[in-house]
Structure formats: C-alpha cells, structure tokens
Design a protein that fits this description.
The chain is of the alpha/beta class. An eight-stranded parallel β-barrel has the order 1-2-3-4-5-6-7-8, surrounded by five helices. Strand 7, helix 8 and strand 8 form a beta-alpha-beta unit. Helix 6 packs parallel to helix 7. The chain is globular and about 45 Å long. The two termini are 20 Å apart.
Length: 247
C-alpha cells in the first residue's frame, strides 16, 4: 500500500463531510476547513433526490446533491455534486483525495461520468453500503477505487438508549463474524477498502484486510482515546468530524 498524500505511510486522515464539527458539513467551506486542518482525504455524501417521474431521461432528472439524506437535503442550501466536484479541481481542494459516499443505489453512471469529466478518477474512491452499486461502478470505470461500507444501516440505531442492549449484542456478534465474512466477500465485491463502523474494528479484521491487500478505514471517530485504540489496531485510515484529532 502506498503512503497517503501528506500523511504517515499507510494511514489516511479523512475529514467526515469535510470538518463537520468545525464548519457545517457537506459544504465547500467545510471541505476547505478540513484541508486547512490537514487531511489526506475528504469524505462527502452523494444523494439522488426524489424524482417525481422515474421514467425521465437523465437530462430531465434533478441533479445529484451533496447531502446525507432527503431530510438533510430539504433544509440546507443545495450543493450539487457537479459544484462540489468542480471545487476539488481548484486550490486548496485540488491537493486532497475524495471519497464519494453513495447514500442510495442508482444513478451510479452519473457519478462516474462526473468524476471522469473532471479527471478525478485517480484521486477518488466511491464507498457505499450497497454492494450492487459497487458492482455497477466497477463495470462503468474499473480504475475507480471502491469502498465497501459495513454494516448496512438505514438509521442511527447506535444512539437509541432503549435499543442499547440489543445493539451491543449485535455488534459483538458482528465483531466475531465479520473478519471471516470480509475474507470471503471483499475479493468477490472487488473492494479496494472496507469502511468499517469503528466499534467493529479489531486486530483480526486488520490482519485480514492486510492479507487481502486492501485498506481498513474506520468511521466516524470523534475522541482521542478511540483514535489511539484504532491506530494501535493497525487501521489504514480514520474518519472524523474533527480532523484535528488525527494529526
């Protein structure tokens, strides 16, 4: 594995939505703040809007936007994917890598085309919880790195007080089982990286991804003690809302 630009060999400092704890995330201002703090990669969300008529041709659809979900997209000033990617072709954003976190399956061709038109394929990765999207991206642009995000979640289940005992049990089961699953499935998926919920990262999983020659990236970490634990495990990258923790 090559060293990440500007970072320690084999370790990526990744800003979540830019630097979301410092400046509102998924905005160009937040991306620029992350670069100012010092990151190797910026992760941001790519969302396909609700389209009233799914039969519309591509040119008639609403543009892809940078937002976490449709509720998020509804209240924030709209930042289109095109505008965000344009910003990464100019200073100061032209010196970092990007990860496009595809929030929903579909319209992968538009994302790939947008990256290709701006000659960003070599600097980019597409990550998603949906393996069918990764297969589609691979068929469209084999050069584009692909990140398998795990686990597949559709709501903030880890924040529910009532569900905590069940969540803890489920996480413990996943911690034990996932290294074996990763060893089998990651090569089939063609993943360049596994983006893992940080509570599922273990030395065993780090050993598996090392054997497979792919990166292990932990999300989303906002305290120094967890950053230190993950660095000791041997993860290849950490995602944080406050990238100052990763310096």
């Amino acid at each position: 594995m090559s060293a990440s630009p500007g970072g320690a060999p084999g370790f990526r400092r990744i800003g979540h939505k830019g630097a979301a704890d410092l400046v509102e995330g998924n905005t160009i201002a937040s991306f620029e703040r992350a670069v100012e703090v010092g990151v190797d990669m910026i992760e941001f969300d790519v969302l396909r809007p609700h389209d009233g008529n799914p039969g519309l041709p591509a040119e008639g659809r609403s543009p892809l936007v940078v937002a976490h979900d449709h509720e998020d997209a509804a209240w924030r000033p709209q930042l289109t994917l095109d505008a965000a990617l344009d910003a990464f072709t100019r200073p100061p954003l032209d010196r970092v890598e990007i990860d496009c976190d595809l929030k929903l399956p579909g319209r992968e061709d538009e994302l790939v085309r947008a990256l290709r038109e701006r000659e960003l394929v070599e600097r980019a990765m597409v990550s998603t919880m949906y393996v069918e999207s990764l297969a589609r991206v691979a068929a469209l642009e084999p050069r584009l790195r692909r990140g398998w995000t795990y686990p597949l979640v559709t709501r903030a289940w880890d924040r529910s007080t009532v569900a905590k005992p069940a969540v803890a049990a489920a996480l413990e089961l996943m911690r034990r089982r996932f290294p074996r699953v990763a060893r089998r499935r990651a090569p089939l998926i063609g993943a360049s990286a596994i983006w893992i919920f940080h509570r599922l990262a273990t030395p065993r999983l780090a050993a598996v991804t090392g054997e497979l020659g792919i990166e292990l990236i932990a999300w989303t970490v906002d305290d120094a003690a967890t950053v230190a634990r993950l660095r000791a495990i041997g993860v290849d990258g950490i995602v944080s809302n406050d990238p100052r923790l990763l310096q």
